[in-house]
Amino acid sequence: MRLLVANHIANALESLHSNRLRTGLTVVGVTIGIASITVILSLSAGATKIISEQVDQLGNTVAVIRPKSSNSDTKITNLTSTLAGNSITSSLTEHDMDAIQAIKGIEAVAPIMLIGGSVTANGTTAHDASIVATTTSLKDAISLPLEQGQFFDNTTKDNTAVIGSQLSVDLFGTEQSLGKTFDTHGTTFRVIGILKRLNNPVNYNNVDFDHAAIINLNSGKIFNQGVASIQQIDIRAASSHILQSVLSQANKLLIMSHKGENDYIILSGKELARPTNELFAAVATTLTTVAAVSLIVGGIGIMNIMLVGVTERTREIGVRKALGASNAHITWQFLIEALVMSLAGGFLGYLFGYLIAFAIARTFLTFDPAFTWTVIAYAYGVSLVIGLLFGLYPAIRAARKNPIEALRNYQ
Fold first, then answer.
1. What's the CA gap between 284 and 276, in Å, rounded?
2. Exposed / middle / buried, residue 378 (Cβ in 10 Å: 0-12, 13-18, 19+)
3. Is residue 344 pLDDT above 80, yes or no?
4. Over the stretch 288-336, which tens digit does the pLDDT of each residue have?
5. CB–CB of 163/126 below 8 Å?
6. What are the DSSP calls for 7-20, one per residue?
7. CA–CA dist 337, 126 (Å, integer)
């Protein structure tokens, strides 16, 4: 049996090699489809890996609470600010934050309130800056590292801010901007601290802190008619062992506070990467459509070429059957040819997909695609199914040929 399969594979390679151009064009369709799938899966895995590493670095002690929103993050431009979709309505309040703060085992609780608007200094406007209103606990809740100065506390004035290193460069042309001032919403803020450069716009907070201006929550409320519209509450437990217990208590408090309405989500561990994965899944919908079309076209190409091959090789089929080849032997012979083409497309698609993913990541993103067995399994699994699906009919048609008729018509 093993010898027979090896013989079928050798015959398939010989047949495909004799029609190199035709075979190559047929493989291209499958290659494009598999490459599209590989791009999105590898980039999604890369983003998940980054967030998982961040959570691990914090000892798996962090969790976030977000309002449930009907707005889904469906734009790649929202990659560094996926909280923006929740900026209009939020079910989270300062009362929720205070209640959670009282839970035993909590090390730090901090709100994140994103405020729209621009940041300007000396006539220069930073268009991609994020304005984050929060409390003094944010630094401890997510371990924000300072490069210079200090984080605001209870002794600092309201109109003070901590800014990201890139925002400092964008506004003032230097990272040494302590004591300088910027304006937003008609209010002047003095820089009292500058964050270390993080280079991680993809993170579980969905805030690019390199481009962020962090102000205190009271100042943020003034810009929002005195209301704290909290898009996220960051929680840090004293240890990973009590995190789930802390979250269970927080859930009970929130259910009571929201009068039984489950209008929020609590994310911890690997779930913290879920919003980012959902963003990539939304992008994947578009790419999958392209991939599906090209895969169908590629599959039809395989079927078409195989049907032409069956017609051209009718005499060969007749000779083989006259010498004792069974229908199963003929079926496998042609099916293996289809599989060789589809798997070759899968291999090339996987290879080109990673190259494209790297090009996209190095040009537009700040992380590399991840190499995982899941991507390999998808690439080769889909190409295998395409080969079987579109190669089976020509193979069966070849097997059903009458050997006498085949030899008579092609003498």
1. 12
2. middle
3. yes
4. 777 777 788 888 888 988 888 888 888 888 888 888 888 888 888 888 8
5. no
6. HHHHHHHHHHHHTH
7. 58
